[in-house]
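Suppose you are handed only these lines of text.
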Amino acid sequence: MDDDIKAACVDLTDILAGMRRGVAFTGAGISTECGIPDFRSPGGLWTRNRPIDFEAFLTSREMRNEAWRRRFAMEVAFGGATPGRGHRALARLLEEGRLAGIVTQNIDGLHQASGVPDDRLVELHGNSTYATCLDCGERYELGWVRERFEARAQTAPDCLDCGGPIKTATVSFGQPMPGEAMTRAGELTAACDVFLAIGSSLVVWPAAGFPVQAKRNGARLVIINREPTEFDDMADLVIHADIGDVFEAATTS
Ligand code: NAD
Ligand code: ZN
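From them, the structure of the protein bound to zinc ion can be written out as follows.
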């Protein structure tokens, strides 16, 4: 770690020490050290597969089959992932009462796995560890979906109650954002004294609006990301380094 980054980590330690109602806003970058690729980095998920948007999922059985094939392939590749240093540091800050909540764009369930309770976590893009019927909202476990899928030559099953399409409980491109999650994220952001944007390219709207909202409300904005973001100029502290290394340095210095 070079001297500039070390100095920035000391600044981060000071900010974390004074934080009283912080919000951590996390993206795929916090989970890359857990072996889950992000979207936009080289080797990221987008360089392999174009995402299936909501309209395509709704209108095409073949796209639904493909979406489930990808989901089960991910299970094999990343199913055993455990929380990384960033997840653990944030869980600690929450326990110490410095963070009021965590708002995540991730769908991997690793904040919960690090011990963060549901009432402190807002999942803006949902969760890929279970599924729901898009028409009636009935919940389905992935094991059940998988059994049906395999038993019917990799055909996506429909809802037992209403015949509607079953999809992981995630928010796809073109799918409306969950209203309750947006409201909770907005409330946390409006009330925070420090907003930590961690491992997000901050290009996906409306999620990327939160750092701006926090700043407008007078919070201090900290950005931790390996590469520059559009909001770096607006931030009070920017650290371009590995998230795990930064939290390790900031919480032990
Ligand atoms: P993104 O891929 O657009 O951005 C991730 C950012 O993190 C990049 O700028 C990258 O440089 C940075 N990064 C990667 N590893 C890092 C590390 N170890 N230290 C510091 N920085 C690092 O992801 P996004 O902004 O979260 O938005 C894209 C969408 O991707 C989200 O909607 C999310 O739902 C979805 N997604 C989620 C997961 C997951 O749940 N783990 C994985 C891939 C994509
Ligand atoms: Zn249904």
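What can we learn from it? The beta strands are 22-26, 99-104, 121-123, 126-133, 139-141, 166-170, 194-198, 220-224, 237-239. The mean pLDDT is 93.
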